[in-house]
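To whoever is on call:

I kicked off a structure prediction for a single chain this morning and the downstream step that reads the tokens threw a length-mismatch warning. I double-checked the sequence; it's 600 residues and nothing unusual in it as far as I can see. Pasting both halves so you can look.
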Amino acid sequence: MRDHLQQQQPTKEEQQRPTPRYTQHEKYKEQEKAYFEHIIAEVGVENELNFRLEESKEELTGSALQQVDVDGGGQDAVGGNGDNVGEASHKSSPLSDTDIGTTIQTLKDLAGDSDVLTTDGFKRSMAEDLTLFCLIDGQSISNAFSVEINPKKTVDGLKKSIRNEKPNEFRDVDPDELTLWRVSIPITDEDDEVPIVLNFFDEKKKLGPATRLSKVFPEDLPEETIHIIVQRPLLPQSDDLNPEIAALRKQLSDMQDSSITIGIIVKPERKVICNWSAAIDTVTVSDLMKVLVEFYPQYDHDDYVELHFYITRSSPSEPIRDDEDLRRVLRVAKTQSMKQLTISLATPTKGFSAWTFKDVVSEYNLSESTDVGIEVLPPFVGIEAAPLKSDLEKEVLRHLLDEVGLRVEVMKLLGANEATRSMVVASFLLAATKLFKEDLYLASQRDLSGRRGNGALDFSVHPRETHSYTLGVTEVKKENFPQGVAQNIVQLEAALTSKKRKRGTYEIDGEEESLRSYGIVTDASQWLLLECTLHEDETVTYRMQELERTINYSGKWQEDAKFVFERLVWLWSRMRDEIPARERYSRKAISPPSDRKTTS
């Protein structure tokens, strides 16, 4: 025994303090657990059961611990039958080596590997330290480091552990000058060189110095995750440049030229698609989109596409809503010397094919009841037959009949699928476009996105000069004409609303000008013509008309085909006449779309 463990006489208060009695009876189970937690706290063990005997001798005193009957034999710690726990007196002599060893072993046996209720009310193994993965703000994941610490420690203690773990990083920085943030950032091999910037994360919590870690991390920690972001204190203004200040000033100097060159990655791709250079102070989202549409032409002229930025591939995205958002992202990228910028492109509206006629009736308020057919649409009156008197018109009609005749001869149209029917439909559309080749062109499978829908169009008509908007859309259906009409309704609105820019008020002869697009729904035999009108208040209305004649390709179909073609030519003339109004409304595109399937 050491001198400071010499025998001491118990005080009056100690003599009156009840000595806990431990049995195996169920009602004392929770009391036993609380008592041994109290003893562990008194001796400063703090969740570690691997005691050293010499340390226990220094901590344990006769007034702090009592011998206990761990076998539950009914004897008091001091003696007697133990029926009245509060009446036993304390043992006043110091504990022997054997007593201390027995008490320590008792604690180990009772705790074992099971969970123990901590003083903070959370369950955690007494032998388990926290392993926290930490990262200094602005560094890449490959610089993450771990700190092992007892969960009963406070955040202030964690700061000291971090300071001791990274003495070079925090040279001349006191632990209390550090700021710690609770985060949850997955660690992946793909992102190990990507700098982590705290300001980009919404899910974060600043930790106060007096908070116990068991409250910050009450449950099992996720693996392969950054748990703590460490922020350095702001550097004081000084003319005495240390290396860190010099590096920061160099970064500031580099930013003053307001330019950046960075690799662009578009999810889900994993490789850089191009290296992009931009002037940070003046760059616009439109500048970035011009580069992106060279690789993703489906988003050309799409004002509804959404841009999102990712700090790492696995982190949550942040929207790039405007030019200032983009400039902020690029400034951070330049400050952190980022070599790659990961973004995604998305259109929030649903696909054209997902719309049913019931959906359209409800969405466009076509009727108070959704249990109606396509006849609910007002009639498209005034459809006329183009005269087809010129030599060119007669030649185009003759060529159309010969081409359709060849297709009827070599193809089985009865019960044919949409792809086969599309080949016949294409002959009619090509012939009509041929008569307006100076003003219009025909496209196949061109992507369109608008206010309520997006997707590829079977066929579409566009102005030849600018290519920047859609005048007409044809939907080919084998069957289910109501759904075909529903798709065409959403497509025609998209053709008029693919630009978000608010339309001004244009006047012709003192009247406000409306914009129109034209549609066709057909199976190559039955033909429905539609008109969509966008009004000044941004609402849309529709008219529809089924042509009186149906082309029966198993009989004498030529006259019926001529009847349909004459009305298609009239519809194409309406599209051509719409160009001046659409030019005033639409932003002009500089170049034609890339990689389009076009036929003229």
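Update from on-call: the warning came from a stale cache, not from the record. Cleared it. Sanity check on the structure: The longest strand covers residues 179-186.
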